[in-house]
């Protein structure tokens, strides 16, 4: 649960080609709209069964920020009270995303994980290619994303342009560092979740060994194979046990959820 919002991004920390990143700059939003809400449930498996540990919610509104139309996306992650005794999480991530370019204007991270608290407020200056956080000013690539904007950016990738095995790179700013990241497109298949059976797009992020995740391409992410591309399931082994994340509810999607084959 500690890394649920990062895990939902389907991201990895690994070098990628700058030229490859540039061609994704200013991607057009065709997948979501203001008013959308998504809820995902996190399950932890230590032995033979998965136990519900917490939830993550993502809510999108349309606001004005510094005179620009922006999507204000708020991601909240928390453990259930019955799980708090083990490891209490109350995380909140916010991103103000330029509606014209899908690039972040401001990113706010406010976390409380097992008593560890951290706050960071980041403003992005596209003219100067800088990010000014609570801790200082840093040079960043022109097309930099934050944790939350990365999720919504990735939902607009046209996977039909790729073949299984292809890598899709972009850059993300987190904890005052720039990470060059990519996902590996696997293909399309049906996936059974706690909500139902879906036609899905499948990909894998390459994870760095040394975090709670094992190294290599062992995390798997499925998103809906329709115009919405909402996250449906994430599976990953961790240092002790494994984690599964399932979409359990949604509202105000931009398009019909046509990828749903059968609801449970």
Features:
single chain; 4 helices; 15 strands; mainly beta; about 10% helix; globular; 15-stranded antiparallel sheet; about 260 residues; about 50% strand
Q: Mind explaining what this structure looks like?
A:
Keywords: Signal. Residues 1-20 form the signal peptide. This is DUF3108 domain-containing protein. By secondary structure, the chain is mainly beta. It has one domain. Helices cover 9% and strands 51% of the residues. It contains four helices and 15 strands. The chain has helices spanning 4-8, 18-22, 81-87, 147-154; strands at residues 37-45, 50-65, 68-79, 90-98, 104-113, 116-125, 130-133, 136-139, 167-174, 177-192, 196-205, 220-224, 231-237, 242-251, 260-263. It has a 15-stranded antiparallel sheet that branches. Strand 13 and strand 14 (242-251) form a beta hairpin. The radius of gyration is 17 Å and the shape is globular. The protein starts with a helix and ends with a strand. The model is unreliable at 9-20 and 208-213 (pLDDT under 50).
């Amino acid at each position: 649960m500690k890394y649920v919002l990062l895990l939902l991004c389907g991201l990895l920390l690994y070098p990628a080609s700058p030229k490859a990143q540039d061609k994704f700059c200013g991607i057009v939003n065709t997948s979501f709209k203001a008013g959308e809400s998504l809820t995902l449930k996190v399950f932890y498996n230590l032995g033979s069964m998965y136990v519900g540990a917490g939830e993550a919610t993502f809510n999108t509104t349309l606001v004005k920020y510094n005179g620009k139309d922006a999507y204000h996306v708020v991601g909240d992650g928390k453990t259930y009270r019955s799980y708090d005794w083990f490891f209490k999480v109350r995380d909140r991530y916010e991103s103000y995303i330029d509606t014209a370019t899908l690039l972040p204007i401001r990113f706010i991270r406010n976390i409380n994980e097992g008593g560890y608290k951290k706050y960071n407020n980041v403003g992005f200056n596209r003219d100067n290619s800088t990010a000014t956080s609570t801790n200082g000013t840093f040079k960043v690539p022109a097309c930099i994303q934050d944790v939350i904007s990365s999720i919504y950016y990735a939902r607009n990738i046209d996977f039909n342009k790729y073949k299984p095995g292809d890598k899709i790179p972009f850059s993300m700013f987190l904890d005052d560092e720039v990470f060059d990241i990519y996902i590996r497109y696997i293909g399309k298949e049906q996936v059974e979740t706690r909500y139902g059976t879906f036609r899905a797009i499948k990909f894998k992020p390459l994870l760095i060994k040394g975090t709670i995740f094992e190294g290599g391409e062992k995390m798997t992410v499925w998103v809906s194979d329709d115009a919405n591309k909402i996250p449906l399931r994430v599976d990953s082994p961790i240092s002790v046990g494994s984690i599964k994340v399932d979409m359990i509810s949604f509202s105000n999607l931009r398009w019909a959820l046509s990828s749903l084959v059968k609801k449970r």
